[in-house]
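request received
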Amino acid sequence: MKKLLTVCLIIALAVPALVFAQGSGEAKSQEIVLKWPSFWVGADTKAAPITELVNQFNEAHAGSIKVEIEENPDTDGYRDKLNAQIAAGIVPDIFILNVDPTTLQFFEGDLLMDFTEDLKGDWGNGFLDGTLNAVTVDKQTKAIPYEMAYTPIWYNTAILKAAGVDKIPETMDEFWAMCDAVKAAGYIPTVQMTGGTNAWTSMIWYSHLCAALGGPDVWQKDFATDPVFVQAAELLNRMYQDGNTSKDAIGAGPGDAGGHYLAGEAAAFSNGPWYIARVKNEAPAVYDATEIATAPGINYSGAQTGYLLSALAAANTTDPARRAAVVEFMKWMTTGENAKTVSEAAGSILAVKADITSTDKIQTQFFQEVADASFVVETFSAKFPVDVVAEFGQALAKMAQGKATPEQFVAQIASVM
Amino acid sequence: MIKTKSQIAIDIIAKVGKWLFIAFFLFMTLVPIIWLIITSFKSNFEYETEPLGLPKVWQWSNYAKALSMSGLPRLFLNSVIVAVCTTALNLIVSAMGGFALARENFKAREGILSLLLAGVLIPIIAFMVPYFSIATKLKLYDSLLILIIVYAAINIPVSLFLIYGFMSDIPKELEEAAVIDGCSFSQRFTRVVFPLTKPGLVTAGTLVFIYCWNEFTYAMLLTSSVKSRTLQLGIRFFKGQFVVDYTSMLAAIVLTMIPTIFVYIFLHDKIISGMTAGAVKG
Amino acid sequence: MRNKNWKQICLFLLPALLLYAVFFIYPLFYVFITSFTQWNGIGSMKFIGFKNFTDLFANETFRISLKNNFIWSFALGFIQIPLATIMALVLARKPKGWKVYRTVFFLPNVISQVALAMMWTAIYNADGGILNSLLAAVGLESLTRNWLGDMGTALGAVIVQQLFYIGYFMVVILASRMGIPESYYEAAEIDGANVWQQEIHISLPNILPILITSVTLAMAYGMRHFESTFLMTNGGPAHATSVLGIMLYQNLGALKYGVGNAIGATLIVLGGVLIMTIRWLLNKKSQKMMG
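response:
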């Protein structure tokens, strides 16, 4: 017994001892160290180019500034951790902000560094149109736009050909005709899913439909009352009925949804540029057959969906040297040259104007489609807080099973807003 | 005793029933393991398009990728340190508390038990913010020590509760005899109750160990560098923002499972069977 | 009357209570206090009294979740534990290969839930999943469905897969059962008691404290259940499988700390009441049983 008690005592004494040992061990030096918890690590396609950029930055500022990447794989875990840190009042030196109405709340108070003044010169002109607006609340820009997401419709033209459809549908009538032809040929017309955190693929379809019905300002309309959102729901619901999607669509997650497209079973799919590499590596035949397009037009045509996916933000500081160091780093990350490097190496589209020459067929089409789009509308997930987006999938599952009408679908989502 | 026909029939049914019961659960538990191992050799394409099929080509490269996980030896060492220290700390603390609660009668007893019970109910994700505050206030953020303390504390309700249950099992007479022999309070613990509850302690310890080995949320929250991170974070390196390398992740899961299985087989089985062989002679 | 050993009792309880105070009581205060506020984790908290709670009880998803938590609790406590008990009693009689079974049954607890969820999602899948293929193979085509996508079957599907993993409690109960001296059974054998009688009159009364502990723990796990549902359905379809843990997680993710923590507080209080009641009933019953 005495032994056990001794062990406990040792532990009880050792804990504070270790605390003090750590506390006094902090060396003071002139070098400014900026810690950057990042999920662009591990298997992420941007891991290598970004690490390289950080190393170059550190070399150029040896002795004065050092940026340390803290590897935080798993975006959901990253988000949870960031929320907890901020609620505890501790903001990381530099971090990745997934831009949506939920995270924009971090702009309240003075937790984050305000870049409004710094961006007024040439630096601010280097960003794509509208991206600075996405990270500006009450005229204060507290994050630097970084990566874009564009989510066009992907068509497997081999399936269309097999079904006797010779061109990508441009109107809804053509679209439903395409669905019938594809079904008759034994394929799945569209990929849909209600699962995951945001019913991703279906949420994108819905955003396309809303844009085609409501035009460039569709999200300015009142979600609860404007008929556009019910009409879009009716169309989305039809994509779930009569074999217009796979049998497992209700409840399916991103893995199941992507699988149908990769397997060459499904004609129309939707996802961002990050999916190109997967299709290319795992399903070369599907890659060859893929064509990128806008969704069929209704009241408006040629709309594309896209939004500012992520931005770089930093903790506010009263130390001018530290502030200057952060700004210096942000500028480095968003030079046209460096954006080009990351974009070309990772297949992503950055929020920085850059002269990118893509060697990839689908990526080239992405750029072309975005440039040719009559207008670009954000997706539902970028426009609404995360709990509303979560409700979207739940309400969709209900509607798709015939347990709710499109009106009730819209009402259920609106009830969470 | 001569068995009647109906008794023989019952015996046969019981025997068949018993083996069917065992066989059913063997099937239900072996299927996931076999699936996991097979799938860890598939390509992502095969997993996504035919999650239940066999791989066409066995992808040893998944294991190569899992093994090339950055900082693997360090992560492994950290996992071992955290799991071992946590288990030790948790068991000492819980056994002492459990002893006082199970073998003594006092006013606050029921109150303390209920309080601890509430601890079992707590959805631990609700504590992310306070735990992060505690870690930074103690200046223990990004250290192995904070993981050890937090894991040991989180497991107190379950361990203490289990150990309490095991300690309540021991007949009062044994202790009474020891008191007559002149055993003090702490000697009753070390000489009588502690040895008799070793199966319970080992069981609770196994559960704590496995918890530590598989825990992700707090490992992520409370650490930031490879010096204080555990294997579970390594596994997540295969999970990108939009694209997951499922099968390499499964290969990493298989690799990280192996040590726990050994811990279970050797520690648990050997200790428990060793003990029960010479256990209580009532 | 004060226990004469009170000093030692305090000393023995101290380490556990100290850790408990820092890592449970203090955070509990935080949970309960914030549950009466509107707070996004950034600005200052705004006290709004019981509004979060009244809103919750008016919320349909919350009611579904609460009901599902009770279903989970009872399923784990009164289906999984009996199964685990039977298995423990069977294995304690050392049938051929029992040590292997003991290890194998425990293995699912070692596998990460992520992998288990991936597998079960594939088994239940409507498009080429094993379950539908099996049903179709034995001519029950009419029963095939989208198990996790159908609002009527999703909850059952998620619960059933979890019920099979009896290893955790089997190990606990087995450890208690193995502590019973062989001599008890030898004596009963001589008295002519058959296996059933031995199990009922010797095993059960002796493992009763652990059984009650196990039922309590299992029910508590049912109340705070989160992981496999989160991974398999995320509470869907149409909230059919939602549980309080998922609602809590989603509200924290949406920076609605007040609502989230009100869910946590409700879970702890209602779960506490449920489990105390069950414990009280079981204890009463067991006292009767023990004589």
